[in-house]
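Marked as duplicate of an earlier ticket. Keeping the data here for the record.
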Amino acid sequence: AGPFANQTPTPLQLAISSNVKAYVDVSDPLDFLDASLALSDTATSSNTTALVAAGAFPGMSNVLAMEAKKSLTPSNNNNNDNSNDKDDTHNVRFHYFTEGLGGSGNINLYITNLGFGDDMVQYDKGKMRAYKGLSGRLLGKVNFFLPETTTTSNNNGFGNQDAKRRVGSKTVFAWPFPEAATVARHLSIKGDSSAAMGTAPELWNVVLGWLVRFVPRPWWSYTKFSKFMADFSEPLVYATDKLSKALDKEGIGETHAMRIDVSTSDEFVSIVQAHDSFRRCVGQSCAEFALDLLEHPSPGVWLPETRYEDDAARKRIISKLTSTPGTFAYTGPVKLAKKEVPSNIEEALEAAAMYEANL
C-alpha cells in the first residue's frame, strides 16, 4: 500500500524471481515506476505479467485518458495507425475527489503529506518539467460532471446527473500523481499536463493550501514531520468522516470521483467516473486488473496506458472497472463545446514559478 517514496521495487523483484504469473501494485513515485519498468525484460523471461500504478488513480485514470484520446475524431487523431496518433494531443489533465476514507485515513494522510515536498513533474508546452513549488497549491474549482448540452459518442455512459448531485464542483490542489508525466510522455503531447485532487469538507482544502504555503517545503519530505502531521490530523479527519456520514442522504459518507480531460488544438474530450467509496474503488480496480492479467497475460512490466493502448484490451478492462459495485457514474468519452480547466490554475503556476525564482 505504500508509501513507495525512496524505495526499490523489491516485491516485484521477488515476484519475478519466483515466476509469479501476475503482479499488481499501486505504486506512484516516478523513480519507483522507472525502476520497475527497467525489470520488464527479466519479467518477460520469467513469464511474469506485471502492472504497476494499477489502482483507481493512478490506474483506471490512465486507461480512461487513453480512451479519451482514442475518442478524438480521425482528423485529430491523424489516422488510425496507433503508432502515429499521438502527435496532435495538446493537453492531458487529471482531476480527483475523495470524501471520507473509511478508517484508512492515516496512511493516506501520510502519503499525501510526503507529496507536498515533492516536485510536480508534468508537461509544460510539450516538455517535461519539474515544478518545485507547485504541489499543494490550490488550483480552483473543477466540475466533476459534464454539461448537459454535449455531444456524446455511443459509449453507454450513465450517472452524469448523479455525479452533479453527489459531487458537483470541488476545489482541487496540485499533487504529484505520476500519470501527469507518464501518460503525457506516452502520448508525446504538445501542450500541458496536470494532476490535482480535492477533498471534503471544503475547509480541509483551504487548510492544506495555507499549510503548504507557509510551512517550508523541505519539511514535508521529512518522514517524521509528515507522519506527525498525519497523526495529528487523523482524529479530526475521523470526526469529519463521521459527520459526513451522518449528513449524507445516501447514508454512505464516502465519495470518490475522477475527471479526465484530453484535448487537441480544436477538440476537447472529457470522462467522469464516480463511486461510493475511494478505498473500495481502489481495491476493486486492483482486483480487476489482476484478474485481467491472469486471463490475458502479456509478460513484461507495464503501465496501464501501455498495456491497454490496444482498443480491444482497453474496452475490455474499462467494462470491468466501471461496472464494479458502488460505481454510480461513468459518462464515457464526451466531446465538449468549450474547454474546462481549473479556475485558478494559471495563478498557481505563476506562484510556483516565483517560488522557484526565489530559491
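See parent ticket for discussion. The chain is about 40% helix and 20% strand.
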